Amino acid sequence: xxxxxxxxMYIMAGIILIMLGIATLVKSKxxxxxxxxxxxxxIFTFGKYLPPSWVGALLVFLAGLSATxxxxxxxxxxxxxxxxxERSQAIGLKIFIPALSIAIITFLIAKFxxxxxxxxxxxxxxxxxxxxxxxxxxxxxYIANDTLSLLQQMGPVLILPQLLSxxxxxxxxxxxxxxxxQSMVSLIPENNRLVGVMIYCxxxxxxxxxxxxxxxxxxxxxxxxxxxxVIALGGNPVIVSALGLTAGYCGTLMTPMAANFxxxxxxxxxxxxxxxxxxxxxxxxLIMLALHITLMYFWAF
Length: 301
Fold this sequence. Notes:
Structural class: mainly alpha
């Protein structure tokens, strides 16, 4: 049941992307931008039924289109600035209720049903959409227009999660953890817990900076460094693993590869300096990384 619901949600996402591609072609006759969204939509809609090599080739092609920097935004009908301002003043802080409801509903479904977090997120997004319509009393026609506009505003960085998850799977497939272990044997002093903890936490942050995803880095960094140089020396596996993962998230704060956290907000807010979010977070990230090293060393042993 969970797999079926997830597949339906992926197809729904793909249909929305295909709609964006068609609307872009009709509105602006921009074949490059339209082709990008159409292919992206095809991957979501039919990816399960296509040979993996085809999906990989399509993703590489999308990355090439993105590199041309010719994926442009098409203007769709939106509410006027005056109407937005008036509605904002009338609704006030209630506008945040739908966003908060996504988190609450997702948690409830993940906690109290067998459907899991991903299905919960999809169901919560749909329910929160209707809740937003009720609160804002907006016309339903804005759903399609604003959805397409927001997708275009986020742009090609939307393909990063797919590329990064593929990269993580590739690293695990080639057994990168064993290679890292063999490389670190000569660098880490034998039975030195402090150095082992430092290199483990820093490596988690660095590989997260490279990959943009702490989960993708966690498997092979923990296998290659965390287990042989921290856990094997007496570190509590639960504490080491928990702090190791969150040490990776210190790297998330410092990288443009974590597009959902650092690039999309800058794009949506139309910030002139796209790196300002990362620069603001950098000192905090470094302090948190040092705290992770300290906590793991004194708490895990």
